[in-house]
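User: Can you fold this complex?
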Amino acid sequence: MQLTKRQNEIVDQALSLTAAGGMQNLTVTNLSAALGISEPALYRHFKNKSEIVKAMINRFDADVPTEQPGKHGFEAIGAFIQARLEQVCANPHLARVMFAEEIFMGESKLYTYLLAMMHKHKAELGGYFAEAQAAGEIQPDIPLDTLYRVVMGPVRLLIKQWGMSEGGFDLRVKGAELLAVLRKMLKANPA
Amino acid sequence: MQLTKRQNEIVDQALSLTAAGGMQNLTVTNLSAALGISEPALYRHFKNKSEIVKAMINRFDADVPTEQPGKHGFEAIGAFIQARLEQVCANPHLARVMFAEEIFMGESKLYTYLLAMMHKHKAELGGYFAEAQAAGEIQPDIPLDTLYRVVMGPVRLLIKQWGMSEGGFDLRVKGAELLAVLRKMLKANPA
Amino acid sequence: MQLTKRQNEIVDQALSLTAAGGMQNLTVTNLSAALGISEPALYRHFKNKSEIVKAMINRFDADVPTEQPGKHGFEAIGAFIQARLEQVCANPHLARVMFAEEIFMGESKLYTYLLAMMHKHKAELGGYFAEAQAAGEIQPDIPLDTLYRVVMGPVRLLIKQWGMSEGGFDLRVKGAELLAVLRKMLKANPA
Amino acid sequence: MQLTKRQNEIVDQALSLTAAGGMQNLTVTNLSAALGISEPALYRHFKNKSEIVKAMINRFDADVPTEQPGKHGFEAIGAFIQARLEQVCANPHLARVMFAEEIFMGESKLYTYLLAMMHKHKAELGGYFAEAQAAGEIQPDIPLDTLYRVVMGPVRLLIKQWGMSEGGFDLRVKGAELLAVLRKMLKANPA
DNA sequence: CATGAATGAGGATTCATTCAT
DNA sequence: GATGAATGAATCCTCATTCAT
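Assistant: Here's the predicted assembly.
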């Protein structure tokens, strides 16, 4: 599962091509040309194109574990979101691909793989949401699935807009702002 | 711009195919087969494939005007969201396509078209958001762009999840719930 | 199952190419070139290459039914063999392909299909052999499988040699001669 | 011409692959993988793929000389056939390849080489057939080419069927039976 | 002896589109 | 309106082979 240096270069380029022109732009021809190698050379490094796409998808998860050891409640959620934002800043291509699950609908194997990843995230973050509700950081009467949507929906949209605008605003600033708003909004009303 | 009956059938099928297997699944061959006609016959109704895709995109907007005549502030926003949910319920395929702008990245002409649509929405809803803030329905210190994300992010995610789960939950119920949570959360704290 | 005119032309060419240079010579490129059409054009007539090969194999059987209505015993066998020889004379390419089952080993689906055909032949001719033994035309103590080999082995070799020698001898003459020898040899010794 | 130990292993594997999936299955990639070595490593042992195929073909003849020193007439023929059967029993893969000359039609150089081998056999066995006819073991009025077909046709078919059935019957038993039938049948009728 | 990385040529197949009928 | 037949361009992938290490 550990990728070689060359494999990583290939995945980088694949992300770049996909970010630039969608899945239709990720062809073996384009990819090998972008890498400056011949098409068959690609097959030394990946069994087939699907494996490349799979490696792309794995990238989404790679550097951003949902588990935030030592952190709890909203702090853990905030840390996770922060990490996502940092990841995307480090590799802006991801912003245009990461939350566009539909891109991968063509390859149903990988699509289900992606959905599974999404579910895992939801479940893991769910723990932190419950903690936050128990700790009084979030109003306790919001069902978990809705809560997840209220928090991750805006984060996803933020990242997507940033990707679409090709870095047209400061993601870190707007991210912090969003988090602050969410935290304040979700705070249990002491009423 | 007004589509014939046949053209509408074609767009329906195109949406269905795209919803089922992504843009890669929307081929002239597949489409004509699904319609039970020959490939050349398609070209009687649309100049080329791009025109079909464009017609698909126009569908997103068709029945759901952002402008909510006679309504104001949060009520207008709620009505818009409600209308979106109804639209998607009426044509579930839309749920799998509508907010997956990246699907169309391949056809850059159409992609920009789609982005423009998204911007228009944002601008138009922006007016209602401002109204809501002025009316004290929404905390006044939240910047408009963040506010848009906080509201539309969850709505998009909700619709997307509903599409992905293939109608696995009651969209109207969960939509109403989400709206209630948002309304309550965004309410200016009387503190 | 009934082939169109164009499909028959394609199968003819496919046989010709295979006869000339083996299965490796039967490429979509070669085939379309030989037919003077483009490669994609082939796919209007056959779903894929395998279907073409399958149609080739069906040719083997097409004009030569094992069943010889109204004939019995050795006469039926002789008629069948005669028909095979005529078929091969009419389409000499068949001689180089028909009994080379191994050619098709690559495509295991078709290979089994071919083996099944071979078994069917064996079974059907078996009936005539039994009749011939009962009628005293063939010695009764020869087991059926061996009998089949003794008769069809030489016929196959004859046809193969004729194909390999590219019609270097008169198949009809040599075939008649072989049949005569076999009939005489197999005759129950009145001893 | 004398093969090294490693070369022999390679030829063994080549036969095995060809027997399993036809010539299409004998690729440099498959072969090296089956041997557990890299592709370039193969080229240490053989100049190119053709040389490997040539070595395969030579195997057919290797252990089975047509000349049967000290033997004459039908005895020599029987001994030759016996030796063939033993050879094939010792290396069953041969049964699926040996008499499928058409497999090699692709490589015309090797194909002619193979045909030459077949002719040599025919010529050499021809001597023994003539002896057998002179000695009264075989009816004298059967032309030599037909005689060859009557004897070797069934033997070939027997071996082929054994190979195809993957050793589904006892080759030695059925071979002996066939030989007995042939001997008896061909015996000059004392009529 | 062996390999990792590469390649030009060619494999089958699908694409959107056109044209004569 | 519709179709059957065709096509150039592009798809992913495999082939035998080479070369620097």
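The mean pLDDT of chain A is 90. Residues 6, 37-41, 44-45 of chain A lie near DNA strand E (CB under 10 Å from a C1').
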